[in-house]
Write a structure and sequence with these properties.
- It is a single chain.
- The protein is built from 2 helices and 34 strands.
- Among the domains are: 127 residues, no CATH class; 49 residues, no CATH class.
- By secondary structure, the protein is mostly beta strands.
């Protein structure tokens, strides 16, 4: 199978001309003279490797079939070679005329685009977008913005359920966005947690307690810079008896400035508080002071806290995760200052939680972990009691939403419980009901008189949802609703004197 190839220079000219003739702003190639001149200037001193060409000063892969003309009838160019159009050389299920590279089993229409300098999905574009984790959301080659923010994790993509785990599950740009009571990737009761009262990180200092999301001291809130001490709200920035905190008293004739006791030597510190070192004119607690950790002038670095007089990295230490003495539970690891579960034992089994991707997840209602970890529901599905269901289809156990269960005999159609071909309430009257998949008039149906499957006896008729004999019923004499006059009786279906 022979082929003719256009001169290399002509091929590159064709590629550049095609790229420059269709501009993103809709202007024609005749309007782009200045851009073409600029492109030529950028590529003037660029030497590209075989199989690539210079565009705007950058070497980019060139379609290997550019400039190739096959001589034999029925042949097509695939991967730079002329092959029979009906052959499937690489065995990927696509014949050469439909396959952009019949010599590469990983390149075919619909394949996953990878960052490999090839047109893997046969869309005539190279490394334009990829979906490495198979979650249906694409990421540009060489980056992860603006579509799939983490193309290495199928659980993370736009529209995913945002869990309280410190991760940006839904690619909104903010981890745990809008999740009330989620602090540093963990659920917290903001109404009564004294370390996160009302909002994450709000610590009720001293003797204050958290009541309904507010730090209270004897029934009232303290102003900023004050703590709840023994005698109520106290200014701990200037009170020499409570300097920097309750019961942290300064020495004799010493002042409290900015929450620190003044000093001129170590002897002036430590008598009434834990700040036993005089650092720069003020007393410092070298056990916890990040600016004077262990001794004066020793400052902890980024991601570190001063714990017991030593700078400790709190981003990965399970004993000090996110802060001193903040220990992760058994089975958890510390990642970026957040405790993450390592196995199901670290989660609340009573709430139906399982450890999925480092976060405790309720698998009964999670679309990404429905019934178990890494068991995502498909498009249009929701997770109901650990089972993925299409609410708009035919699930009588979850019709329209997880809570709607159709009555016996009904079917779910487009999110509504229906009886056969009828509507949700059959003909729209209170008298009608769905009985064994069929709409019945309970007021007149002798097989369902007053209730489904309540049949009248032989010789009886269903009148106003009650079985009766028209032969002798003075209220329904001869037919339903025909009443005999006062003093008359019903005999053989006729009113008589």
């Amino acid at each position: 199978m022979s082929a003719k190839r256009l001169p290399a220079g002509a091929a590159i000219v064709l590629v550049l001309a095609g790229a420059l003739s269709a501009r993103c702003d809709g202007s024609s190639s005749s309007d782009a003279g200045a851009d073409i001149d600029a492109t030529d200037a950028l590529c003037a001193r660029v030497s590209c490797a075989p199989g690539t060409a210079c565009t705007a000063g950058v070497c980019v892969p060139v379609d290997p079939c550019t400039g190739v003309v096959c001589e034999n009838v029925g042949d097509v160019c695939s991967g730079g070679l002329c092959v029979s159009g009906v052959a499937d050389t690489d065995g990927d299920g696509f014949v050469a005329r439909d396959d952009c590279d019949d010599g590469d089993e990983n390149a075919y229409p619909g394949a996953t685009e990878r960052c490999d300098g090839k047109d893997d999905d046969c869309d005539r574009e190279i490394d334009e977008w990829q979906d490495a984790d198979g979650d249906g959301f694409l990421a540009p080659c060489g980056g992860t913005v603006p579509a799939d923010c983490d193309d290495g994790d199928s659980r993370i993509h736009p529209g995913a359920e945002d869990l309280c785990n410190g991760l940006d599950d839904d690619c909104s740009g903010t981890p745990d966005e809008g999740l009330a009571g989620c602090c540093s990737g963990r659920p917290v009761d903001l109404a009564q947690d004294e370390s996160s009262c009302g909002e994450c990180g709000t610590d009720c200092a001293g003797f204050a307690s958290c009541v309904s999301g507010a730090c209270t001291c004897g029934g009232r809130s303290c102003e900023e810079g004050s703590d709840c001490c023994l005698w109520g709200c106290t200014d701990t920035q200037s009170d020499a008896w409570n300097c920097g905190g309750c019961w942290k008293a300064c020495g004799f004739l010493r002042e409290c400035v900015g929450g620190r006791c003044t000093c001129d030597q170590d002897a002036a510190c430590g008598d009434w508080n834990d700040a036993g070192s005089c650092c720069g004119g003020t007393c410092a607690e070298t056990d916890v002071d990040v600016l004077n950790c262990g001794e004066c002038g020793v400052a902890c670095g980024p991601g570190e806290d001063c714990c017991g007089g030593a700078c400790v990295g709190v981003l990965a230490d399970p004993e000090n995760c996110g802060g001193c003495a903040k220990r992760c539970a058994a089975g958890e690891t510390c990642d970026s200052g957040i405790c993450r579960c390592g196995n199901d034992a670290a989660c609340d089994a009573d709430r139906g939680e399982a450890c999925c991707g480092g976060a405790c997840v309720r698998t009964s209602g999670s679309r990404d972990h429905c019934g178990g970890c890494d068991a995502p529901c498909g498009p249009g599905e929701v997770c109901c009691s650990g089972t993925c269901r299409r609410l708009e289809d035919f699930s009588t156990a979850a019709c329209g939403d997880c809570e709607t269960i159709c009555d016996p005999g009904e079917a779910c159609y487009q999110g509504d419980c229906r009886c056969g071909e009828g509507g949700p309430d059959c003909d729209g009257t209170l008298a009608s009901a769905c009985c064994s998949g069929e709409c019945r008039d309970l007021e007149s149906d002798e097989s369902s008189c007053g209730a489904c499957d309540r049949s009248c006896r032989w010789g009886e008729t269903c009148c106003a949802a009650d079985c009766t004999s028209l032969a002798d019923d003075e209220e329904n004499c001869g037919r339903c609703g025909q009443q005999c006059q006062s003093g008359h009786t019903c005999s053989s279906g006729r009113c008589r004197d």
